[in-house]
Amino acid sequence: MVQFTLPKNSKISKGGYFKDVTGSKNIKKINIYRWDPDKNENPKIDTFEVDITQCGKKVLDILNKIKNEIDPSLTYRRSCAHGVCGSCAMNVDGINTLSCMKSHKDINGDINIYPLPHLKVIKDLVADLSTLYRQYESIEPWLKTKEKKSKIIEINQSKQDRKQLDGLYECIMCACCSTSCPSYWWNGEKYLGPAVLLQAYRWIVDSRDEERKERLKKVAGKLKLYGCHTIMNCTNSCPKGLNPAKAISSLKKMLATN
Ligand code: SF4
Ligand code: SF4
Ligand code: FES
């Protein structure tokens, strides 16, 4: 039988153990993926004992506590801390999520924290999203009108047309869905992935936009769209409760009937 193994320099080793110094009885062990591009070392898992009674409810609060009080070199992205910016996406306990939305009280036992999967790691929990942003740019995510009328007049939208954007405009491009998608793992350079396809659909169904046909043509490539095999991981992992798989199937339907 064929056996797969990671290359030597990708194998994760055991890292440091940072013992609690407070004597608290409410200690949680937090295991965090660490990798520093400036050190010629393999990635490792550091374990931190954290007094969770002296910490906010979310996983991001734990990371902030570790960074502020135990190890300032811990690196991760965050900004709004309210599920709006999408920057704190990471893999917590095996699921891609926003660390500022995920309650650590819902997790029994140790908490395992990794960067978003199947992306290059820049440092610790910071994954490289440049391919995804290039793909996002390729769908031209802004309103397009032929006569530049948006510069001159306000473009009205009926309540019904506006409703078409519900479940789409809320997307914060956190990439939890795309990095949960097996098709995106294997073909991330060619397949646009659920986050970008949901965004493409958002502009295609916007009644104010006048480039629907051109937009549809742009996403119609064999692998760009049809890389999706309806596995549904994307929808299950969206921390905003959106349904990118449905947006993708609507795109396929539109192309089949147009
Ligand atoms: S659809 Fe959900 S998981 Fe995907 S990028 Fe948007 S908010 Fe994030
Ligand atoms: S439904 Fe499509 S986009 Fe979503 S996880 Fe499955 S293959 Fe990926
Ligand atoms: S910090 Fe902005 S979504 Fe989590």
How would you sum up this structure, described in words?
By secondary structure, this protein is an alpha/beta fold. It has 2 domains: 8-127, Roll (Ubiquitin-like (UB roll)); 130-257, Fumarate Reductase Iron-sulfur Protein, Chain B, domain 2 (Orthogonal Bundle), CATH 1.10.1060. 29% of the residues lie in helices and 15% in strands. It contains 9 helices and 8 strands. The chain has helices at residues 59-70, 130-138, 159-163, 182-187, 193-204, 212-219, 222-226, 233-237, 244-257; strands at 13-18, 27-34, 44-51, 89-92, 95-98, 111-114, 121-123, 126-127. The chain has a 6-stranded mixed β-sheet with strand order 1-3-2-6-4-5, with helices on one face. Strand 7 and strand 8 form a beta hairpin. Helix 5 runs antiparallel to helix 6 (212-219) and helix 5 packs across helix 9 (244-257). The mean pLDDT is 94. Bound molecules: iron/sulfur cluster (2 copies) and FE2/S2 (inorganic) cluster. One iron/sulfur cluster (SF4) binds at residues 171-177, 194-195, 198, 238, 240, 242, 244.
